[in-house]
Amino acid sequence: MDHSTESYHRTDLMTITRHVLNEQSKHPEARGDFTILINHIVLGCKYVCSAVNKAGLAKLIGLTGNSNVQGEEQKKLDVLSNEVFLKALVSSGRTCILVSEENEEPILVEPSKRGRYIVVFDPLDGSSNIDCGVSIGTIFGIYTVKDQENPTLEDVLRPGETMVAAGYCMYGSSCMLVLSTGSGVNGFTLDPSLGEFILTHPNIKIPKAGKIYSVNEGNASNWDEPTAKYVENCKFPRDGSSPKSLRYIGSMVADIHRTLLYGGIFMYPADKKSPNGKLRLLYEVFPMSYLMEQAGGQAFTGKQRALDLIPKKIHERSPIFIGSHDDVEEIKELCGAF
Ligand code: AFP
C-alpha cells in the first residue's frame, strides 16, 4: 500500500477489522470469535490512547499510592488501563483466562462469559515514562485454551511458540497497533478523525542487520562477559566498520517498535543483580519475540530461543536479546549458542 497523502484519500481503506476478517476467510472453520476478540482489544487501545493524550488535563498523571504485584508503584493510568482491558476482554465473551501484569493471580472469566481465548497482557508498559510524555504502550499475546469448560493454569504456562497472535499498541506521536496472527506482521495507525486503525505498514520485515543497539548501559558494571563484549564491539568494532548508534527509551514498546522498523538489537540481559533480567516472560518477552520472528528477526534469552521457554510462573522474568537476525546471531555466538 502506498503511504502517500494522495493515496490516503482512497475510499477502500484497510481497517484492522477488515484485515482480520480477510485473515479469517483463509480459515473456513473460523466463526468470527477471533475478530470479535481483536475488536475488543482495539477498543481498549483506543480508550487508553485517549486517556494518555489527555493525561495532564484530566489529572491522570501521578501515583495511586499503591504497589502492584511486582512491588512497583502504580500510576493512575496503570490502574485505569488495566480496568479498561479487563472489562473489554471479559465483555467480548471470547476469553476464559486473563493474565495481567497488574494482577497477582490469573483471572478466570465467569462461565457464562467464557470463550476459548487466553489473553496475557501488560496494559500500560513503560509507565515511568507517563509523566514526561514519552511513548508508552500496551502489549498482548493470545493463546487458545485446550478445554473451554475447564481452563487451567497449565493452559497459560505454555511456550510462547504456541501463541496464536501477539501485538502491541504504541501511544506515541501517533497511535500505532502492530499485530501478528501468525502470517507476518502488520502495522495500523489510528486515524483520530475516523476512530479506526488503518493499515499503514503492511508486512513489516526487520532489516537483516542494523546500526543501532539499545540497552540500559547504567547496568554495565553488572553485565556478564558476552553482553559486555557485544556492547564493546558495537562501540569499537574490531572489523573496522562504523560504530553502532545507541538509542534507549526505557519503554519496551517504543524501543521494539524502532528496532522492528529500523533494525538493530534491543537487549535487557541478565546481570549480577538481576539474574533473570527485568522483563516479564508472558506479557513482554513472548509477544515481542513472536512479532520479531514473524518479521524475520530473532529473540534469544542468552541460552536459548525465547519462544521455546516454558514458564513456571505467570510473572516470571527472562533476559532477552531481540532484533535483526545478524545482530542477534552475534550475541548468540558470544554466548556459545549456535
Ligand atoms: P516501567 O513500566 O517501570 O517504566 O518499566 C518499563 C519496562 O518494563 C520496559 O518497558 C522497559 O524496556 C524496561 O522496563 C526499562 O527498564 P530500566 O528502567 O531498568 O532500563
Automatic annotation (TrEMBL):
This enzyme's EC code(s): 3.1.3.11
One GO MF term attached to the UniProt entry: fructose 1,6-bisphosphate 1-phosphatase activity
Main location: cytoplasm
Enzyme class: hydrolase
Keywords assigned: Carbohydrate metabolism, Cytoplasm, Hydrolase, Magnesium, Metal-binding
Family, as annotated: Belongs to the FBPase class 1 family.
Name of the protein in question: Fructose-1,6-bisphosphatase, cytosolic
Protein species of origin: Parasponia andersonii
Organism classification: Eukaryota, Viridiplantae, Streptophyta, Embryophyta, Tracheophyta
